[in-house]
Amino acid sequence: MTQRNTWQRERVREALAESRGFVSAQTLHATLREENTGIGLATVYRALAGLASQGDADSLQSPDGESLYRACATPGHHHHLICRSCGLTVEIEATAVEQWARSTAATHGFIDAEHVVDIFGLCGSCAKARESA
Ligand SMILES: [Zn+2]
Ligand SMILES: [Zn+2]
Ligand SMILES: [Zn+2]
């Protein structure tokens, strides 16, 4: 496997770390284009998918079905509470969900079950801003 795109991947990783909240590949690509890195959208997609599969980034589907990514400080399995207005993200544990997922899978004879549970909403300050608007 060739390593010639390593710097591009590192640059994508940095841009992701500098982003606030979850971002799409398009958003990240636009940021990188402003910096004249010459990194193409397809490379950004590949780099993000690679980071996500190695556990260096969180990925999730937005309510619109778009893949979003975030450099994540929390290792291991966890969930997110995401403000759909400002992108504020809170890392959460969901013990009840873990138990429910395990027992539901077991009831149906499934093993090796995985799940993705993220909560989208309006954060406190965005909710306040909307009230006063
Ligand atoms: Zn996370
Ligand atoms: Zn917000
Ligand atoms: Zn979970």
TrEMBL record:
The residues that hold Fe cation are: 77, 98, 115
Q: Where on this chain does Zn(2+) bind?
A: 83, 86, 123, 126
This protein's GO cellular component annotations are: cytosol
**Main subcellular location of this protein, as a coarse class:** cytoplasm
**InterPro entries reported in the protein's UniProt record:** FUR, Fur_C, WH-like_DNA-bd_sf, WH_DNA-bd_sf
- What does the record say about how the cofactor binds? Binds 1 zinc ion per subunit.
- Protein known as: Transcriptional repressor
- Protein's organism: Microbacterium rhizomatis
